[in-house]
Amino acid sequence: MRRVIIDCDPGIDDSLALMLALKSNEIDVCGITIVAGNSPSDMGFRNAKKVLSFLGRLDVPVYVGASKPRVREYINALDTHGRDGLGESFLEDVPNCEIPTKTAVEFMIEELSRKDTSIIALGPLTNLADLIDVNTKAFLSAVDIVSMGGTFKSHGNCSPVAEYNYWEDPDSAKIVFNTLFENGRKLKMVGLDVTRKIVLTPTILEYICRLDIKTGEFIRKITKFYFDFHWEWEHIVGCVINDPLAVAYFIDDELGKGFEAFTDIEVQGISIGQSVVDSMNFYKKPANSYILTDVDVKKFWIMFMSRVMNIDKEIIEKDFEMILK
Ligand code: BDR
Ligand code: CA
Fold it and tell me: What pLDDT does 56 receive?
């Protein structure tokens, strides 16, 4: 079992990612840390607890980190994720859960110092940059760092060139990429090039409901708003679920392919938040990232569905042609 901290901003797709992670026995989620992103951090905390409660996993600790980006003004994504950050499902708060006094950064330092723990970052990289400020050594002790964020060739979702997580806090993203560069380390970037291919369609949702009504209804509740948003803004029937792919790729790196490159983040101007991936080696700098460009969509869905529903892979494989129609 690989130990991992999930740093996230739940968020509809963050919640789906937590569901996949907590149903996967190859990984041990030792804690969840919350960053301001899709939702303000106190709302993200309550949402993480709601997901844990649904999964019967309230034993997993949740800590709260940054409440705003490093330099920029904070811009949440409640227009995409609904007023409650969970698709306006308005699920009840889990009773008696106070925000712990231990901060996300303090928790990360403790866990990473064991030197057997990785990080999956599903939100802006503010908590990771804060960790670098306080204890760079602990940050560099992470076995693996996977980040859902950025984009290489695909267009952005906040500007023509920028993806939300890096656009919301470009200064922190830059610190993370630069620190990795200075220390000869790499981050695995699961960006829009690949996550855009993961579309939860009405058929897939209906299929999940047929096989596991409790899980299906939970997913239906939290994604309905997201479906409407995608129809209005992207003319897609369904919704792109970005974050679970980062978890899936962490579990099985055969799920995606890409290339190594030096990457930096633009922190100002019209390209603010852009992940500038030097795929042609203009800068002649050693790689600090592995950029995912291809994903096995079928393999992803079989992994996701079989795990969140606790059903044999073979059953879903048999139905797959029908589900993807
Ligand atoms: C990313 O931004 C958020 O809206 C999602 O949760 C995901 O992490 C996609 O750009
Ligand atoms: Ca997210």
Answer: 98
